[in-house]
Amino acid sequence: MPIKTAFREDEKDVALKKTVLLIGTLDTKGPEIDYMRQILHTLGLQTLVMDIGVVRASTIRSDLSREKVCSAGGIEFKTLFGFRRRDLVMETMGKGAAVLARRLYDKNRIHGVLAAGGNQGTSIATTAMKALPLGVPKVMVSTIASGNTRPYIGNTDTAMMFSIADILGGPNTITKTVLANAAGAIAGMCLTTLPIRAERNRPIVAITAFGNLEPAVSRAGERLRDLGYEAITFHSSGAGGSAMEQLIEDGIISGVIDMVTHEVLGELHPEDFYAPVRPGRLIPIVKKQIPLVFVPGGLDYYVFGSVKTIPPKFRKRKIHYHNPNNTNVRTSAHELVEVGKIIAERLSPGAKKTQVIIPKQGWTEFSKKGGPLFAPAVDRAFVSSLRKYAVPQLRIHEVNLHVNDPPFADLCVETLHGMMPRSGCSPT
Length: 428
Hints:
alpha/beta, Rossmann fold, six-stranded parallel beta sheet, 14 strands, 2 domains
């Protein structure tokens, strides 16, 4: 099938300077990877092909052999088959693929990653994609993309495409179109990608959110923008908080109003709808020593799907029926004592740059007086635990407000602004 370039001549000059890393198990998906390579070359991009196949040798040429990938994972390929567990083989190849991909990116030799695979290939290739910064183009064509993709995407900006038909036996009438679309997508991404950089005189402040804290989050964002910051909101649905923390590790974000830290519940209780989550929520913020205002929003309930998905041990508690596919179950005092201890331990090393503000009239819209999850005694158990286990230097303020009261958002912004460096922010 002839491939027509969609780029103008001036665009092809830009494309020729871009290189896509193609990842696949060449022993089983070789013809498909080669097909996408040809399309990318027709579109004017260069390619590097990484072979992650472990079953047998392939006749398809690779630039990074399976032996090199395995070696980068810390094991020589000839000893790989000594593993009796296939997951350890995949773990080794994933680690090696990640090491090589990051090395190539750091040397400015690749500008995007494209892969195609089944379950195993998807696992290895997306491990490599997770090693690259947010903003680097990443496209994964997978036979499992119509299912639960959280384990593969994590908190990255990877785009996953369902292959429709199996990726086996070479491109066919169905997969030709899917693979061509994927190649076109990564080509377009590489041509138009913008690196994530904070503006010099407009520091970025992150705000974490849940839908029922929208009044607080929106007002805080408006106030921050009035002060000259760029306010970016992250939904604390598991991946959102982790994505924010990755950007903090990359030096993109300068301050945080952490309105919702629901992911901590997901760490302790994996039954929660938003689990699994990356462990260690709050730790990257504290390690980076950037100003942090912590609010216990979202710690007052678990999130589940429909009523039928609520675990039996939670069904006698207070429940908010948010919609047919979303129910919220009140956390207990015992659980919040445990959460308070963990959060105190994580915040204490950053006490000089952290302030805790607790709205005594409720942490979410559902737990205010008259709400379905109203339980002030349970909230107090958290506060007592936090004070008990935190270092004395950690400033903890309790205010007689609800989290969605406008003065509460104003207080959070004023508190954070008071901790931010005075240079580099120009009020609008």
